[in-house]
Amino acid sequence: MYKLALSSLSPENYPFDLDLLPQPVYLVGGAVRDAILGRKREYLDLDFILPQDAVKVARKLAAHYQAGFVLLDKERQIARVVFANATVDIAQMEGDSLETDLRRRDFTVNAIAFNPHTQEFIDPLQGYDDIGKGILRMVSSKNLEDDPLRLMRGYRQAAQLGFTLDSETQVAIRQLAPLLGKVAVERFRTELGYMLVNSQGTEWIVQAWEDGLLAPFFKNTTKEGCEYLLNVDKVADQLTETWQELGIELNKYVRDTIKTTWLGIAKIACLVSSEPETAEIELTELTYSRVEIKSITTALKLFPKFSKLEMPLREQYFLFQEAGFVFPTTSVLAVVRDNLVEGIAPLITRYLNPDDPVAHPTLLVSGKELIVALNIPASPIIGKLLAEIAIAQVEGRISTSEDAIAIARELIDSF
Questions:
Q1: Which domain holds residue 331?
Q2: Reduced to 3 states, what is the DSSP secondary structure of residue 170?
Q3: What value does the mean pLDDT take over residues 227-235?
Q4: Are β-strands 86-92 and 78-82 bridged in parallel, bridged antiparallel, or unpaired?
């Protein structure tokens, strides 16, 4: 097992020449743990500790490679060097020895040091043994108390690594859970975001709720909501078996700048109030983006309509217009809540057909053409007329631009 780690941590895998680092220097944290596990990352996240001059060394390294430099903590002497394929954090050793530093860390599996110059491992807390057993064990409850985010991080790491929590560690986390309220909400959401991306994470989110970790932030989460949450991945897989394109849509990010998937939106919707107005207040306090809040509240508002087995084309048209890109998320929520795949099958089929006139209408006329033809000013009435034209089109009552203008003339006095 150690040989595998040595291969992963060989000098050619670093984004810089190791000779530029003074001796002694130690690689610590997740990179060492993942190397022992044989886990590979496309983007490296390396953490080094030095006995002294950490920021000075980081500046010199950044200057040598013309890489990015960020001073993370002047008082504790922590700096970051950003390469194209790696982030390298260099920190001053805490305490008067390497072992003292390692004993200040969160979990034993993250308290193993590796000297890249001598190829030596330093493991005073038997983290290697815990890695072999697949156990996440705290170094001490005091360390968790010092940074309460570590409580949530434990569940996130257990999910990512496929580990279990040591029973004594889990008891300590439950006791310390109220302290999470002191943590900045953005830091908490980052940990939650990692857990939203797969089914293992989903199970640990529910476990975190049961152990009191969500309470400081998600005040309206219920047992029923958690039961729904546990079914989200299963339902998504079920729908993807029939509609592969829907699965692709569900795993896309809401925005390039927002690392939440549409399936993640469905999961968050299970954690907040089912009342859209209350959920909006809750999500705003949690500092979610406007697009995430709009997506979640839209899904909560619309999913009950998806269970209607007989829906006139007019209702379907307005449903698709309101749902927009949130349709895949809403479909999952509808099945999770009502277990009616057959009921929404026609809607999904329409949504996935880009030429479907109900889900993706192509207007016979534009708003500008209506303004000219009817000699009326631009106003909200134009949007209402266009909607009625689209409905008449999908119902088969009109088929040409002339028909569209004619029906608009008939309707304009009624608005």
A1: 219-360
A2: helix
A3: 96
A4: antiparallel
